[in-house]
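To whoever is covering the structure queue this week,

Two jobs came back overnight. Logging them here so there's a record in the thread.

Job A:
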Amino acid sequence: MNQKRILENTTKRYEKLPAWLMIILACLMVEMFFFGGSIIGILILTIISIPFLIAHLNNPNTILEQFSLLHVQLGLFAFIALTLFAWVKWYEKRPISSLGFFKTNYFLEILKGWGVGTLTFACSLGLSYLFGGVTFNRVDFSGANLMFVVSTIPFWLIQGGTEELLTRAWLLPIINKRSNLPIAIGISSSLFGIMHLTNNNVTGLSILSIVLSGVFMALYMLKTDNIWGVAGLHGAWNFTQGNIFGVAVSGTSTGSSLFSFGIKPEAADWISGGDFGTEGSLMASIILLLGSIYLVLQLKKEKSLL
C-alpha cells in the first residue's frame, strides 16, 4: 500500500490510550475545536466591532449590511482553524504543515479543487432540474451584486477549508493510525453528518447526503494528498450552491446570488432537497456516490487503498 503524506500522523500524544477511547475523544475534540474557536472569534469580533455597530444603529438593511453579516459568519471559521493550529503546534508537538499544507503547487491544487466542487454541485442541481425539482427564477449580474458574490469567495474557502481541517486533515489520520483507512473515512464522514443535525430543515436524506459528501471529500483529499485541493472543493461546493445558483446551503440562505433557482411546490423533497437545499436531495447523493466510486477506483490503481 502506498502511504500518503497526509496520513503520516507523527504525534505520539494519544498512543497510551485504548484505540476505542482515543477515537471517541478525538471526535469530541472536533466539536471542542469548533465551539471553542467560535466563541473566541465571537468575543474578539464583538469587541472590535462595537464602534462600527454604534455608528450604524439607525441604518436601513442594505446589501452592504447583508454583505457584512455573511462575511462575519464565514470569517468566524478562521478562529476555529487557529484553535486547531494551536493544539497541533503546542500540544501535539508537530508542524502545522503535517495537516496537509504541503507547498507544491498549492494554488493550482486549490483551483483544481474549486473546479471539481463547482462541477459536482452543478451536476447535482442539473439533475434536480431535469427531474422537475427546481425551477429557474432570475439572473442578476448587477455591479453591486457581482461585487458581493465575488467577495465571498475567500470566505467560503476559509469556511470549507476549516471544516476539512477538522474532519479530514486532523481527525481522519488520527483514527487511521489506530484502526484502518475505511474505518477512518467512515467515522470522520459520519461525524461530519452528525455536525449538521442542528441545521435548519434537516432530514434523514440530507444527512445521508452530507455523509456521502464527507466520503467524497475524504477520498479526494487522499487522491491529491494535500489539504489545498479539498479546501477548494468544499469552498466551491458551498459557494456555488449559495451565491451562484441561489439555493440554501445546508438549510441556510446565503443572501444574493448570480442566478436564482427555487423549489417547485409540487416536487418531492427527495428530488429538490426541500428547504435544506439541493445537497439534501437524492440527486446530490447520486452524484456524490458516483464521484466516490470513481475516486476509489483511482486510489486502488495507485494501491493507496487496502
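Job B:
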Amino acid sequence: MKLAIVGLPNVGKSTLFNAITKAGAEVANYPFCTIDPNVGVVSVPDNRLDFLEKLYKPKKKIPAAVEFVDIAGLVKGASKGEGLGNQFLAHIRETAAIVHVVRCFESGDITHVMGGVDPLRDIDIIDTELILADMEAVTKKLERLEKNVRLNDKKILAERELAIKVKTHLEAGNPARTLELTEDEKIILKDFFLITAKPVLYACNVSERDLPAMENQYVKTVEEKSGKEGAQAIPICAKIEAELSELPDNDRETFLKDLGLEEPGLNRLVKAGYSLLGLATFLTAGEDEVRAWTIKKGYLAPQAAGVIHTDFERGFIRAEVMNYDDLQKLGSEKAVKDAGLLRSEGKDYLVKDGDIIEFRFNVSK
C-alpha cells in the first residue's frame, strides 16, 4: 500500500512524514524544502499480532506495512511546471491513494504560502492543479482514441465514450473520483491512470491548543467537504506526533495520557488509509513467525493464499481457519480445535479480516 502525502508548502507534510517514518526528512519554514520525494515505510498497528507473538513466541513478528511518499509542496501552476510541479505530479501517479494534509491552525511563527489560513481554498488549489494535470492526460488519450475510432473496435469505442465523459466532468472543476460510473467504466478508468481518480484522505493538521478534542472550525469545514465527496477526514497534530515518535515506547503512553489522547493520531491515520483502499488483514502464526498479510476485501481463500506465494494459490487444497476472538478467548490453538472451532474451508471461502489461516496446498512438478 503506497500513499502520497500532498499539500501546499508549510502545512506540516514533512513534519507528519517524519513522525510516520522517523526518517528525518528536512523540515524548514520555506517552500520546496522537499524536492525529491522522501519514501518511508511504517508498520500497521495491530494488537492481534502482538497477542499472537506472546502466545506463539516466534522468532519473528512481521506486521503489515504502509509506504508513504512525501511529495514536495504543490503550488498554483504546478500542472504547468510551477515549483517543479510536473515532477511531483508524476510521483503521485505511482501511488494508490492520497493523504492531503490541510493546515487547520493559526500561527504567527509559520508562514502560510497563501498569506492566511483557509482550508477550503488550500484544498481547491491542490484539486485544481491535479484536475488540470488529468485534463491534459485525458485530452491526449482522447486524441489517440479518435485516430482509431474508425476501426469500430468495441474496446476503443468504450474508452472514447468514457474519456469524453471524464473530460466533461474535469472541465466542470470536479475530480474524477466524484464521477458516477458503472462497474465496467470503473475497470476501464484504471487504465487512464488519473490522479484525481485516487481515493483521498484529508489529514487536518491542528495545533496543540486543539487537543484533546482535536476539533476547531477549520476541521469542521474540511469534514463537511469530505462527507459530501465520500472522502475521509482525520484530525491530527503533526507537531505532537513528531514529538511522540522521538519518545521511548515506555514514555509514549504517559505522554498520550497527559494530553488526554487514547492513541497516537498516526495509528488512526494508518488505519484510515487501510480502510480507504478497502484492505483487510489475515494472520499466520507459528514458531517461526507470526505475520499480518494485506489483501483486498472480498478475496477468496485461494487469492489470499496467493499473497503469500503463487504456488499456494495454484496448488490450493483448503484453508484451516481460526477466528481470532476464539483463539484469544480460549488461549491456545489446541483449545480452539478441541472446541470444534477450527474450520476447514474450501475455494469459495471469503476471507475475513483477522482470520488466522494455515493453507494446505500441493503443486505437482
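Note for Job B: Residues 104 and 217 are 8 Å apart (CA to CA).

Please reply-all if you pick these up so we don't duplicate work.
Q.
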